[in-house]
Amino acid sequence: MKRGYFPIGTLGLAIIAQITVGNILPVPGSLPSEYIVGYSLSSRYYLALSVAVLGLMVVYYVVRSRTGMAFVAIRDDEEAAEAIGIKTFRYKVKALLLSSLLAGLGGGVFSYHQVSYYYQSPFELSWSFLPTLTTFIGGLGTIMGPVLGSVCFLASTSCLPLLWGRFILSSSALALS
After folding, report:
1. Quick count: other Cβ atoms within 10 Å of Cβ 56?
2. Residues near 14 by beta carbon (within 8 Å), at least 6 away in sequence
């Protein structure tokens, strides 16, 4: 899929997965209490941080390699890339494998973070929109763009409700006095 069709296809797959998993697993499951007693957020944080740094390093080195140059050539103009001798199918398979590896690592960290499993949680529509949104906020075609976009998005979604709540509280207090 190219250009704007990729997010639409991702959204369609998310909806299909949500309906399928909802039909297969109608009742949410929970872990036994002995597992929940040993729950530690710090180990999960350091695992997520190390996987994120590892992913950024892999992307950094792939982008600056011969494979990365082929990815950019295919992205810019697939026919021209094939005309200069780049085997586009081979590099598309490499891109699929690399992105699947990184997505699998992220999914593994997500599943390790969860104490219980609710089937609807990983298949919500926000999981289809948020990666695309943070990438657009941070900037396309850069390595640090999605990272900065994620930081800006999380900061705004965390701080704005607090500030808005204080604004509502203070304006309500002024209105009552």
Report:
1. 15
2. 123, 124, 125, 127, 128
How far is CA 120 from each of CA 23, 33, 75, 124, rounded to the nearest angstrom? 11, 22, 34, 6
HEC readout, the chain: CCCCHHHHHHHHHHHHHHHHHHHHCCCCECCCHHHHHCCCHHHHHHHHHHHHHHHHHHHHHHHCCHHHHHHHHHHHCHHHHHHCCCCHHHHHHHHHHHHHHHHHHHHHHHHHHCCCECCCCCCCCHHHHHHHHHHHHHCCCCCCHHHHHHHHHHHHHHHHHHHHHHHHHHHHHHHHC
Q: In this predicted structure, which of 18-22, 81-85, 98-102, 154-158 has the lowest mean pLDDT?
A: 18-22
What pLDDT is stored for residue 109 in this prediction? 85
CA-to-CA distance for 30 and 28, rounded, in angstroms?
7
**Which range has the worst mean pLDDT, 21-30, 39-48, 68-77?**
21-30
Whole-angstrom distance, CA of residue 123 vs CA of residue 111 = 13
Is the model's pLDDT at 84 over the cut of 90? yes
Q: At what angle do helices 88-113 and 41-63 cross, to 10 degrees?
A: 170
Single-letter amino acid code for the residue at 124:
E
The dihedral through the CA atoms of 123, 55, 142, 158 has a sign that is: positive
